[in-house]
């Protein structure tokens, strides 16, 4: 479908991204600038960054594909995912931003190592887990980008992956979080505007929601119910009440605690942003998500009535939004704009994930475990090399796309939930949580997620999302091991504001001491 206008607009879009990366590179003077943009993110840059870090390739392609295959029982996703942004800002952001400023955290692994007095064992485990889940998640993002570029230019899948990988890697490597945050603001604006502009045309072309509901109810009456009856009677009818409970926990908490999302709160310029950011992030994302899901319904209706045909592909439903726009808006000039909108959606998370992989390896593993004396310049170089290697590895894994994009992304979120949710929540709010408990919790969660995920995918389907079993085992491990081991020092618990509160009464931010985390690591009485 690509014409000259499409090539020009896509080229301009990529040119702007590279330009932002080049501008951002001039603002980087040390590791903190690269990882946290100098803790300078303003309200809108931060809010849109959180939304788009969660957004991913699933928002346009996966969400519409899920709507296409499951109808209204999947509508709960449109509440759970936006709630993740609010949950992250409220339950993680308020505390972590304050503690991070005081104690010099650059990553969430800095917090875990400090709070649990485990500068090596827990830091290494959490960094490795963060890199692993980010790489899994990245495969889904590259699959989404490939869908768009293959559709646009009719090029082979591997060429589409290579183009996407080179562009995103380039501006991420040179500009760090400065580049990622400002390109995300640009991409987020395009995404929001584009969905609000184009989704109503697709829905109207299918006859409006009332007609759409009539058509999809003819396929399966349960397509217009709030959930499918239990037990599941078909492969698409998995959104049963018990599954939706696990689904809500998966999306709301799993996405909120993902390293590439929660790390953003450490880069906020002012804590007062947390007052309105949760509500605004939730509202923006919820509106976008509902429109995209309704588009999936509309395309299913159009296909059922013989007005549309999806591509002959294993993940055909993930093309729903694309073919819906082609059908509803036959203006080729607007297709070029739509192409940029879809690319903005899928690239806005990909760059954040790549940066997380690079910084987790360079800062948490290379600098804090193997070479504590490494200078900033060396750490920055290692981070950039890690970004390139991570991008290359995930591009290879993405050559064979999954049957359904949403499932691959949900798998990545499930591993995040099982490994990070309990250590983070227990660390922030339970003074009895110990370093040994955190290590046990994260290790058990990671292994259990892999085991139950494998079982669900290759042995037999489970009644709830596999991550729920892993989360329960992770929580039990935290509680049991913490009760059996010595607690952390009172000074550490007080210094990391641990307790059953979001904002401690009368607490005021203290001046940050550069390198405080590293000093705490070296002087910790219980190093693991």
Automatic annotation (TrEMBL):
Signal peptide: none annotated. InterPro entries: Na/Glc_symporter_sf, Na/solute_symporter, Sodium:Solute_Symporter. The keyword Transmembrane helix applies. Pfam families: SSF. Its main location: membrane. Residues 504-528 are annotated as: Disordered. It is a multi-pass membrane protein. The keyword Ion transport applies. The chain crosses the membrane at residues 6-24, 36-63, 75-94, 125-152, 158-178, 190-209, 243-267, 279-299, 319-346, 379-399, 405-430, 437-456, 468-487. Keywords: Cell membrane, Ion transport, Membrane, Sodium, Sodium transport, Symport, Transmembrane, Transmembrane helix, Transport. It is found in: Cell membrane. NCBIfam families: sss. Belongs to the sodium:solute symporter (SSF) (TC 2.A.21) family. This is Sodium:solute symporter family protein. It comes from Methanoculleus methanifontis.
């Amino acid at each position: 479908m690509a014409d000259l206008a499409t090539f020009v607009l896509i080229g301009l879009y990529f040119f702007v991204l590279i330009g932002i990366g080049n501008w951002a590179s001039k603002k980087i003077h040390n590791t903190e600038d690269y990882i946290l943009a100098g803790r300078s993110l303003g309200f809108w840059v931060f809010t849109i960054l959180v939304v788009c870090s969660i957004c991913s390739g699933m928002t346009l392609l996966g969400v519409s594909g899920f709507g296409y295959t499951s109808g209204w029982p999947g509508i709960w996703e449109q509440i759970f995912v936006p709630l993740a942004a609010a949950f992250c800002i409220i339950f993680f952001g308020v505390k972590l931003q304050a503690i991070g400023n005081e104690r010099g955290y650059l990553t969430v692994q800095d917090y875990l190592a400090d709070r649990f007095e485990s500068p090596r064992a827990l830091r290494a485990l959490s960094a490795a887990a963060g890199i692993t889940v980010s790489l899994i998640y990245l495969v889904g993002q590259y699959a989404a980008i490939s869908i768009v570029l293959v559709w646009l230019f009719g090029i082979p899948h591997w060429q589409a992956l290579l183009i996407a990988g080179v562009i995103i890697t380039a501006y991420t490597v040179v500009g760090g979080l400065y580049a990622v945050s400002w390109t995300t603001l640009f991409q987020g604006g395009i995404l929001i505007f584009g969905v609000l502009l184009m989704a109503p045309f697709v829905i109207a072309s299918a006859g409006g929601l009332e007609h759409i509901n009539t058509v999809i109810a003819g396929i399966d009456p349960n397509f217009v119910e709030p959930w499918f009856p239990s037990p599941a009677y078909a492969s698409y009818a998995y959104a049963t009440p018990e599954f939706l409970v696990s689904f809500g926990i998966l999306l709301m908490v799993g996405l909120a605690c993902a390293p590439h999302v929660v790390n953003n709160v450490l880069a906020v310029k002012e804590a007062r942003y947390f007052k309105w950011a949760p509500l605004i992030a939730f509202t923006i994302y919820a509106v976008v998500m509902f429109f995209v899901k309704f588009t999936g319904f509309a395309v299913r209706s159009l296909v059922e009535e013989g007005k549309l045909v999806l591509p002959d592909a294993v993940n055909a439903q993930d093309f729903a939004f694309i073919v819906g726009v082609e059908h509803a808006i036959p203006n080729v000039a607007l297709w070029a704009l739509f192409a940029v909108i879809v690319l903005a959606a899928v690239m806005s998370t990909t760059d954040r994930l790549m940066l997380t992989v690079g910084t987790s390896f360079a800062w948490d593993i290379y600098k804090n475990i193997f070479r504590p004396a490494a200078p900033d310049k060396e750490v920055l170089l290692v981070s950039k090399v890690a970004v390139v290697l991570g991008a290359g590895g995930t591009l290879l894994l993405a050559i064979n796309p999954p049957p359904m994009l949403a499932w691959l992304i949900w798998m990545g979120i499930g591993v995040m939930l099982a490994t990070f949710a309990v250590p983070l929540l227990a660390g922030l709010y339970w003074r009895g949580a110990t370093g040994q408990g955190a290590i046990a919790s994260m290790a058990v969660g990671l292994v259990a997620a892999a085991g139950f995920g494998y079982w669900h995918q290759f042995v037999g389907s489970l009644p709830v999302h596999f991550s729920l079993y892993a989360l329960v085992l992770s929580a039990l491990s935290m509680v049991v091991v913490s009760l059996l081991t010595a607690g952390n020092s009172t000074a550490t618990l007080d210094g990391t504001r641990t307790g059953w509160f979001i904002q401690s009464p009368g607490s005021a931010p203290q001046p940050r001491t550069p390198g405080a985390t590293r000093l705490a690591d070296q002087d910790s009485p219980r190093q693991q």
